[in-house]
Automatic annotation (TrEMBL):
Protein name as catalogued: CBS domain-containing protein
This protein's UniProt keywords: CBS domain
Pfam families cross-referenced by the UniProt entry: BON (PF04972), CBS (PF00571)
Residues of the BON domain: 146-214
InterPro entries: BON_dom, CBS_dom, CBS_dom_sf, Diverse_CBS-Domain, UCP036990_CBS_BON
Domain of life from the UniProt record: Bacteria
Record PANTHER family: CBS DOMAIN-CONTAINING PROTEIN CBSX3, MITOCHONDRIAL (PTHR43080), OS02G0818000 PROTEIN (PTHR43080:SF29)
The CBS domain, residue ranges: 10-69, 93-150
Length: 233
């Protein structure tokens, strides 16, 4: 089972603009490519910043308003007013850009997007050169994996971690929902099996129908000092 990372789902053919690209050209590019943001790069394709639709909309939002900074105006509002008066990419972009690497896990990429309040991340190599871009939609594409692939990965991880045979635990996957059934020796093993099945990339939910021989998670169930289930000796 492979660990899914950013390079598995990112878009590699990325539309970009230079720092000198003019406002109208940026709007035309985004409309033509049907994208909502575009990285700004230098001649070596190092990422300088990102321009989103929000950056461009400040010109519409603040049309007709004076450009001078107002008394007690916040930093964000002042930045919006500055972008409303901008005409080229280097003045419009949000910088520095929040980026990620091709080897970043999908979980970490999603957490970065949430923390930084961004909808996509330019993907850069170790030298800062742009190699792709990953969006929220790209991250969600993991949940489109075929059920057969999910079942294979769940069985693989169960057999590797617990050394269980497929005859001991039955795995059914429908629309990304994994249902586990069968019987294992310990309650802790059943609990852990459900947990690791849920960690497989693309699994939506796990229905735990596993039963167990004895409850090693219940201290009342064990004789003090013996570690043996009561009623079995």
């Amino acid at each position: 089972m492979k660990a899914w990372k950013v390079h598995h789902v990112m878009t590699r053919n990325v539309s970009t603009v230079a720092g000198s690209t003019r406002y109208r050209e940026i709007v035309e590019l985004m409309a033509d490519k049907k994208i909502s943001a575009v990285p700004v790069v230098d001649d070596a394709r190092r990422v300088l910043g990102v321009i989103s639709e929000a950056d461009l909309l400040h010109k519409v939002e603040l049309v007709g308003e004076p450009h001078q900074r107002r008394l007690f105006e916040g930093r964000r509002r002042h930045a919006a007013r500055t972008k409303a008066d901008a005409s080229v990419a280097r003045e419009l972009m949000t910088a520095p850009a929040v980026t990620t690497s091709p080897e970043t896990s999908l979980v970490r990429a999603a957490r970065v997007m949430e923390r930084e309040h961004v909808k996509r991340l330019p993907v850069t190599d170790d030298d800062g050169h742009l190699v792709g871009i990953v969006s929220r939609r790209d991250l969600l594409s993991i949940y489109l994996r075929p059920d057969a692939d999910l079942r294979r990965d769940v069985l693989e991880v169960l057999e590797r971690i617990f050394s269980v045979e497929s005859s001991e635990v039955d795995v059914i996957v429908a629309d990304g929902v994994v249902t586990l059934s069968g019987r294992v020796e310990r309650h802790s093993a059943a609990q852990l099996a459900a947990y690791v099945a849920g960690q497989v990339s693309g699994v939506v939910h796990v229905v735990d129908g596993l039963t167990f021989e004895f409850d090693d998670l219940n201290p009342v169930y064990l004789k003090p000092g013996l570690g043996s289930p009561t009623g079995l000796l």
